[in-house]
């Protein structure tokens, strides 16, 4: 859980940096940003030091996430990652002078309370492999996310941000499940390609969502996509479980943590800062 929370700190801080960088990259491009998902946006964003710093934090967060996924159930890691929005809120308040109201600080407390409940109730990770077709299903889902993102990039404003954010969350969810299915570096394992494709699609869709649409809506969709589906897969097929008699506490903690994170989703909104610095 310490690794999962460390991963949330890395991801939450990276969100603020990448949101600003993505919009600066959009302003420096020749398009309007509404023509669809633009792979070249990633190249332009990587010229921004904030985006590169965010990628570094994402890399560290991913390593911590892998360690966590090998030790605790997916649902616990997913809820901890949803708490990255609470981290984003605190970073925005401290670094970018975004003011949090008393209600919003209370939401941060709610997230922490939910995670504490999950920490008390979580058992060890499951050791089941799930159906033989699960790795192939993950690969198919990852490909579908990329295709759906190409279509969603042409949707109007709020719908665009929601679908792209949800797609990014599902891509990160594919990564979470794939990590559990990879025991060694095996080029014949479709879960390896699902991890690479799902992660790549997630970064592309999230960067596109942060570019022009409502970052509030995008982050809310991402939280839903990266928590609910992987949690169900972990419990239903991979043998994740809670401590004896504490299933109710785990469910309550999961719901409380995700609800608190969604309440804080608007702090993914990139503040207006001087991107030329």
TrEMBL record:
The keyword Plastid does not apply. This is Integral membrane protein. It comes from the Bacteria. The chain crosses the membrane at residues 51-68, 74-93, 105-121, 133-152, 159-179, 191-210, 217-239, 245-267. Residues 1-21 form the signal peptide. The keyword Repressor does not apply. PANTHER family: CONSERVED INTEGRAL MEMBRANE ALANINE VALINE AND LEUCINE RICH PROTEIN-RELATED. SUPFAM superfamilies: Multidrug resistance efflux transporter EmrE. Keywords: Membrane, Signal, Transmembrane, Transmembrane helix. It comes from Streptomyces noboritoensis.
């Amino acid at each position: 859980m310490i690794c999962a929370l460390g991963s949330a700190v890395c991801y939450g801080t990276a969100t603020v940096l990448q949101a600003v960088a993505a919009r600066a990259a959009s302003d420096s491009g020749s398009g309007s940003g509404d023509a669809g998902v633009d792979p070249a946006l990633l190249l332009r964003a990587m010229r921004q030091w904030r985006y590169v710093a965010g990628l570094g934090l994402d890399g560290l967060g991913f390593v911590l996430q892998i360690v966590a996924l090998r030790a605790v159930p997916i649902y616990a890691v997913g809820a901890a990652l949803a708490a990255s929005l609470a981290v984003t809120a605190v970073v925005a308040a401290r670094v970018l002078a975004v003011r949090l109201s008393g209600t919003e600080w209370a939401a941060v407390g709610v997230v922490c309370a939910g995670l504490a409940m999950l920490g008390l109730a979580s058992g060890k990770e499951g050791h089941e492999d799930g159906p033989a077709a699960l790795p192939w299903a993950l690969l198919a889902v990852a490909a579908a996310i990329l295709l759906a993102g190409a279509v969603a990039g042409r949707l109007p404003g709020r719908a665009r941000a929601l679908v792209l954010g949800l797609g990014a969350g599902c891509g990160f969810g594919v990564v979470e499940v794939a990590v559990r299915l990879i025991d060694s570096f095996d080029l014949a394992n479709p879960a390896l390609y699902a991890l690479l494709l799902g992660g790549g699609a997630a970064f592309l869709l999230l960067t596109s969502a942060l570019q022009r649409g409502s970052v509030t809506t995008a982050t809310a969709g991402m939280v839903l996509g990266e928590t609910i589906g992987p949690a169900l897969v972990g419990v239903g097929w991979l043998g994740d479980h809670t401590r004896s008699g504490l299933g109710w506490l785990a469910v309550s903690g999961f719901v409380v943590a995700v609800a608190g994170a969604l309440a804080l989703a608007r702090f993914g909104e990139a503040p207006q800062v001087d991107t030329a610095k």
